[in-house]
Design brief:
The protein contains three helices and three strands. By secondary structure, the chain is of the alpha+beta class. The longest helix has 9 residues. The protein starts with a strand and ends with a helix.
């Protein structure tokens, strides 16, 4: 499908219409005078749920090993802390 290029000012004025077009599967490219800047696509719909969630319904289907609670190795800890 070909992408549509729309000026950012026009997009601001026509957001409701763009929403409908995106929901129909169209891709929209937002542009300024200097050229294309953003490509907007629709977010896929979440999967349908088969019913209510029941707390504890996954009990016994997996285990968390004791090592899960061990401190991180220094190298990984530095990576998480941005060091």
């Amino acid at each position: 499908m070909m992408a549509t290029v729309i000026n950012i000012k026009d997009a601001d004025e026509a957001l409701a219409g763009l929403y409908d077009r995106l929901a129909a599967g169209e891709e929209i490219v937002l542009a300024r005078a200097t050229g294309p800047r953003l490509k907007v696509v629709a977010q896929p719909a979440p999967p349908e749920r088969s019913g209510k969630r029941v707390p504890g319904s996954m009990r016994g289907q997996f285990t968390v090993p004791d090592s899960f609670f061990d401190p991180l190795p220094e190298e990984e800890l530095r990576a998480w802390e941005g060091g």
